[in-house]
Design a protein that fits this description.
The chain is mainly α and about 140 residues long. The protein has one domain (about 1-139). Helices cover about 75% and strands about 0% of the residues.
Amino acid sequence: MLDHLPYMMVGAATVLTSSPLLFLLAWFLNVLVNRLLKNSIKQPRPKDCDTYLKKSYGMPSCHSQNASFSSAFVWFEITDLQKMIFVLLTLVTMAQRVVSHCHSVSQVLVGSVVGAIFGLICFQLLLMLQKSVKKQSMF
């Protein structure tokens, strides 16, 4: 079940954000960024990971990137309690990926940083888009 936390967070963020369709589009782009990074960096997963995972690269962790992306994107639209829950779920996701030997600590940390930065950038772009639409509707 812990393996599915980032996807539950995506669902929660979709409900909590003011622009669910744009959030889902940005999340899809986040996944593409992860694939591009994995195929560029080509860092293997830890040696003791499950055999089915050894076919894919480990850097950066997609689960950690998705969890941090969701948290960062909705950060300015949610309550303090919801922020604490999102941070806790992100940390649990990161720990689970390391404890289960799916990723190294560095793979999880890089995934989290990439996800948080990309989430904040996408949210700022959303704000700029909303302001632009608002200005155009005034005329």
